[in-house]
Amino acid sequence: MQYKVLKWLSYASCVIMLLVSFNGVVVTRTGSGLECGREFPLCHGKFVPGTTIGSLIEYTHRLTAGIAGLLALVTLIAFLLWARKRRDFQIYAGVMFLFVVVQAIMGALAVVFSQSAPIMALHFGFALIAFASALVLALSVRRAGNLEARQEPPAEHRMSKRARNLTVFSAVFTYAVVYTGALVSHTELAKFAVVLHIASAMLLVLVLLLGHMAIRDYGQISDIRKLGIIVVALIIALPLSGVLNLVVLGSEYYMFAPMLHTLITDFLFAFLCFMSIRAWELSRIPAGEKSSVGLKKAVRA
């Protein structure tokens, strides 16, 4: 019973964090950031906003962020109580809670004081970390449950430190590119756009190299191979969604394209984070040693 609660809490957290990110895109694209005035948490002095579309969009974003914060807190407490032997799960839940709270505070400060470009970019970047933490938690819980169902964890093959470092660097570099992209969307400065295009091209090559290495050199490790395929598919889709943004600019589909671009970006960074964690684990394990601990055994009876 406790295992099922933890599993579904991790899944629900992942979904709500993604909704927060989506709502943020809608707020930015519609220019609804100040539709509730410079007040927080009230909207023009009321708990329930007016009937204007802009105020409803902004208030929905605030409401979703609030629900995300409460769910993250409940998830953290549940893992602290019921998965005491899985310190890694507790860390993922803690990071998720920390960053969803931080990004909410930054969003509130941006409304009350000013919506400067660096603050809004950080607001998006912290929301991205919160989602990545939620997805890492959900994937880790799912993996632990699958290992438990098999009774015995499979023998793990060691990954080299070089492969591990490339994976971690790819995740960090992806975050840097995403932050630059968020900064460009809020400033529209040409010099930042040039930097973004160069960085995006480098990221494309880097992730393609990482995916090729994961599939060719570590294809015997099932989850590393699958993660390699996923990140390659996402990095190919990312520039295509960027082109779609330009194609539909000014049309009735202008909201769909940035949401798709954000979806791909969020999942790319999150899967790279999970891949980095797995690469770190595998780089520290002698070949053939069984490293994973099933979640059900770690849950307090």
TrEMBL record:
Topological type in the membrane: Multi-pass membrane protein
UniProt keyword Metal-binding present: yes
Subcellular location: Membrane
A Pfam family reported for this protein in Swiss-Prot or TrEMBL: COX15-CtaA
Superkingdom, natural source: Bacteria
Keyword Oxidoreductase: yes
Protein name (record): Heme A synthase
Top-level taxonomy: Bacteria, Bacillati, Bacillota, Bacilli, Bacillales
